[in-house]
Design brief:
Elements: H1 3-10, H2 14-21, H3 25-29, H4 38-48
C-alpha cells in the first residue's frame, strides 16, 4: 500500500492518520511513498473496516513488567 492509498482509504490527512495510529505526523511523513510499513498497513486496513487497530508492543518480552 502506498502512503497516498492509505490516506485515500481513510479519507484523511497525514496529521489525521497519525492521530488515528497514535504516532507523530513526522513519523508518517518519513514513510516511503511507494510502500508503507507492513504493520501500519494492517492497522490502516483495520481502521478502514471499523476495527480497533492492532497495537505495537512497546515492552521487551524478555524483561519483566514493572509494577
Amino acid at each position: 500500500m502506498t502512503k497516498q492509498e492509505a490516506l485515500k482509504l481513510l479519507n484523511c490527512s497525514v496529521a489525521d492518520l497519525a492521530l488515528k495510529l497514535e504516532i507523530s505526523s513526522q513519523a508518517v511523513s518519513q514513510w516511503p511513498e511507494k510502500k508503507i510499513p507492513l504493520m501500519r498497513e494492517y492497522q490502516i486496513r483495520d481502521l478502514a473496516k471499523g476495527k480497533v487497530p492492532i497495537k505495537r508492543s512497546t515492552q521487551n518480552s524478555n524483561k519483566p513488567a514493572i509494577q
